[in-house]
Design a protein that fits this description.
Length: about 170
């Protein structure tokens, strides 16, 4: 949040319960407090397996609140999100599919290079709306809806296609 330009006082960190999960009552109270102060909460970040404890927040409960309050729902799955690929992990991560955004770091469980951490979104139009460029030298494919151009979905245009390493790993091992 700080990298995006938010000031310390614009970020609200909620205290966890005894199991180190976000307290639903504290989340509801923080949203209500913002409203009373004339502020608009816009995003909530939940954990899908913290690094130190492996704690998973109550993702479905939080998703319900985010939907009711029109908040973006981001899940930090950098460490534990990969567990969705396993039966036990899928059970623990119920509700993860309801996130608007999900971060995953394949280097933590799959020993992949650091450079391929990723942000997954549930609406690809958000990415193309953010990153799409209509540069003259890229117009040769304009109008061809059948061709997926990854430069419209991130900052990869002049860079290496790092995600290919992870895709190939998943395709051939999982």
């Amino acid at each position: 949040m700080r990298v995006l330009g938010f000031k310390k006082e614009e970020i609200c960190i909620l205290p966890p319960d005894i199991e180190l999960k976000i307290r639903i009552d504290k989340l509801k109270n923080a949203i209500a407090k913002d409203k009373l102060e004339g502020l608009q909460s816009f995003c909530f970040i939940a954990s899908a397996g913290t690094i130190n404890m492996g704690t998973v927040d109550l993702l479905n409960d939080i998703a319900d609140i985010c939907e009711a309050e029109n908040l973006w729902f981001h899940i930090d799955g950098a460490y534990g999100g990969i567990a969705i690929l396993y039966k036990k992990g899928a059970k623990a991560l119920q509700g993860i599919q309801r996130a608007n955004f999900l971060t995953v770091d394949p280097h933590k469980w799959f020993y992949q290079p650091y450079e391929i951490g990723c942000l997954l979104v549930n609406k690809s139009s958000w990415l193309s709306g953010t990153f799409s460029e209509k540069l003259e030298y890229l117009r040769d494919i304009e109008g061809n809806e059948s061709e997926l151009n990854f430069y419209d979905y991130g900052t990869q245009l002049p860079r290496r296609f790092r995600a290919l390493k992870f895709y190939m790993f998943i395709k051939h091992t999982v």
